[in-house]
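re: that complex we talked abt at group meeting.

here r the seqs, copy pasted straight from the sheet so there may be weird spacing, ignore it
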Amino acid sequence: MDIQSIILAAGKGSRMKSQLPKVLHQLAGKSLVQHVIDTCSSLSVAHCHLVVGHGADQVKQSVTSNRMQLHFVEQTEQLGTGHAVKVALPSLKTDSLVLILYGDVPLIHHDTLDDLIKLQQKNPQGIALMTCFLDDPTGYGRITRDDDGLVTGIVEHKDATPEQHLINEINTGIMCCHSSQLKKWIANLNNNNAQGEFYLTDIIAMAVAEGQGVATAQPINIYETEGINTLRQLADLERIWQREMANQLMDAGVTFRDPNRFDLRGSLTCEAGVVIDINCVVEGNVQLKQDVHIGPNVYLKNVTIGENSVIKANTFIENSQIADHCDIGPFARIRPEAQIKSNVHIGNFVEVKKSILSEGAKVGHLSYVGDSEVGKNVNIGAGTITCNYDGANKHKTIIEDDAFIGSDTQLVAPVTVGKGATVAAGTTVSADVSPGALCISRVRQKQIEHWQRPTKKK
Ligand code: UD1
Ligand code: CA
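got the structure back, here u go
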């Protein structure tokens, strides 16, 4: 049977005190609702119906899905969770299984939902409901059960009696049932309750009254069903998630100097022997091969780093490839489309952009290498600048194998320095240099004896 999901995401989230729609706040570098959408598509959900309201246009523009069809349903007035589901009903395919999720409960896990779907399939006319036991259930809907322990309904906190407030089994909001049953129950909802809202939760008692069972399941981890209402809760959940990611990496053999000071905003795969120091931020897809060491305060985005390479403190690398046995930083910036081959040394305050640095090349200090091809074993002295931009277009600098570029050199592109050539310190290279030659453009030093410095006027 087809599985469809309804994700409720129309609420305002006023407690976030933010202009940004609540479900677009980010957790681990991805919006809350996008987390839920991605989990749905991993479950082979065929159609996903996203109920939007507050900030609808912004939400619609920001979310994506490639494997699953995403349908937007607008709920112009937020009359409650039952009403939100109601507006999505007309777009549901008939004879399907419906999974109801919340756009502000981002970390619900694939396996947990898979179990819930399987539970529902044991009792196709009933409801499978995700509940959870909390030490402090304040604010949540409570699960009521009869003497045999069978679910009888859900009572919202604001409607509950003092005895019911003591129940610590709560409704996470996540549930699963057949589309035709859902349509029938939703049609019978009313808003006679403390909040004057159409409560989705009332369908539980309806199913029970019809003699359809309500089966419950619990998430594998409590944090999976935690919802976000405030920026504090968002920050807390972010930390829980980050620690979870660090734990998984440690289980796979990564050493963290402090797993509580690590941020993964994408995916990181590591081979054996990887060591990561504090405050590293990883975005996009990052791969660290065997024995890579990452120093403190390093930012990595869409990078592959080869075996035994060392990235020193405060280095920034994005959209680049670093081969094995490289030594980069501290304070280096490797910008997009850099290809750093093996045994390259890049030192402090060096910026590299869209360049190939071949095996054994060295750029030790304070240099800019852009739009360049740097040959094997080239040595680039301190303060070297490739002048790649003429104000309109970018031009290429080619430095062939074994060339030596003295300190404080400007290479005015387009220009080629031939194999084994030497460029003297302080030179402005504005024409090609032949292989093996010495190139020097430096005013001859002169000296004026007994020089009188200017003095201040009285
Ligand atoms: C709901 C449940 C409660 C459960 C809790 C779990 C109901 C009546 N109550 O309460 O039993 O313990 O979630 O977190 O369902 N939304 C809409 N349109 C609306 C109203 C809500 O899209 O008209 C969306 C919100 O954006 C949010 C979700 O539904 O993503 C939950 O709404 P919220 O008002 O936060 O529900 P609670 O009162 O917390
Ligand atoms: Ca509410």
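couple things i noticed - DSSP finds eight helices and 37 strands in the chain. Residues 8-11, 51, 53, 75, 78-81, 83-84, 102-104, 140-141, 154, 156, 170-173, 199-201, 227 surround uridine-diphosphate-N-acetylglucosamine (ligand 1) (CB under 6 Å).
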